[in-house]
What does this fold into?
Amino acid sequence: MANAILASSPGIFEIEQQNDTIIVVPVVNLRELEYQRIEEGARKVLDFLNSNGIKNVVLDLHKTDYYGSSALGIFMKFWKRVRERNGRMAFCNVSAHEKDILQFTHLDHLWQICSSRNEALEAVKE
It folds into this structure.
């Protein structure tokens, strides 16, 4: 399946699908003040994961520079769903600040951090 935007939820996430992988693209910085919108967007991503037999998730952060602890909680929810399906999750196009957060929280040990979307898509296939 070619990349196509399948869903966009209240200005927070775009979702694209490539075979058994979805690419989730936050379109705004995921700050704590956006908690309600982040939760609504995450529900749509999780609904998509539940209904379409998706195994893997790539989080492409090329449109953002920051996320807070609420976003980390959402990423963990995505990870839990992916693990239930024996899938993988990877991040790509991560800003220096976002990478620091993943390293500080040791979440970079759970998820591969890739420099490009293609690299992340390959990482989740392995």
